[in-house]
Amino acid sequence: MSDSRVRMGVVGAGSFGRNHLRVIAESQRAVLTAVVDIDGERARQAAAQYGCQAFTDWRELAGKVDAAVVATPTVTHASTGCALLEAGIDLLVEKPIAADLADAEKLCRGADSTDRVEVQIPASGFLRRELYLGSSRTVVTGDTTPRAATLA
C-alpha cells in the first residue's frame, strides 16, 4: 500500500516554524519531510529533533515535498512563497500573509497562475487542528471552515 500522506516541508525554523514542525510531525495525514532555514545549524537541530532532512535553501524542496509552510520573516513571504508555488509546491503561509498589500496580491496571483493552493493562517487555533481532513486533503483554517481547494 502506498503512503497517501502529504509530504510537508517547513521553511523557517524559528519559533513559529518549530510549532509547525511539531504539529506536522504529530499528524497522521502528513509526513514531515524537510526543514529549511538559512541558519544551517538551526535547520540541522530541528531536523534531528523531528527526523527529517535539513536544508539551507528552499530550492532543495523541489520533488521532496507536496506542500510547505512558509514561516519566515514577513517581508520574505511573497518572494519565498511565489518561488515555491512556481516550483509546484502548495503553501501554507504564516500570518500575516505579507508585509504589504502589493506583496499579498503577488502571492495570490502566484497561486492562481500556477494552479497551486495557497492558504494564510487566520488564527493561531489552526495549529491545534489536524492539517488535512479526509482523503480529499482539504486545507482547513482556524475556524474549521474549508477555505482552499484540494491539494494538487
Question: How is this structure best described in words?
Answer:
The chain is α/β, with parallel strands linked by helices. The protein contains four helices and nine strands, in the order βαβαββαβαββββ. The strands form two sheets. It has a six-stranded parallel β-sheet, with helices on both faces. The longest helix is centred in the last third of the chain and has 14 residues, at 101-114.
List keywords for this structure.
single chain; 152 residues; alpha/beta; 4 helices; 9 strands; disordered C terminus
Kindly summarize this structure in a few lines.
The protein is of the alpha/beta class and 152 residues long.
Total count of strands: 9
Please outline the major beta sheet.
6 strands, parallel
Question: Quaternary state, please?
Answer: single chain
Strand content: 15-25%
Number of helices: 4
The side-by-side strand order for the widest beta sheet comes to 3-2-1-4-5-6
Helicity, in percent?
25-40%
**Structural class given helices, strands, pairing?**
alpha/beta
Determine the mean pLDDT: 80
Q: Specify Rg, calculated over alpha carbons.
A: 14 Å
Q: Tell the overall outline.
A: globular
Element pattern in H and E:
EHEHEEHEHEEEE
Q: Return residue spans where pLDDT drops below 50 for at least 5 consecutive residues.
A: 122-152
Distance between the termini: 20 Å
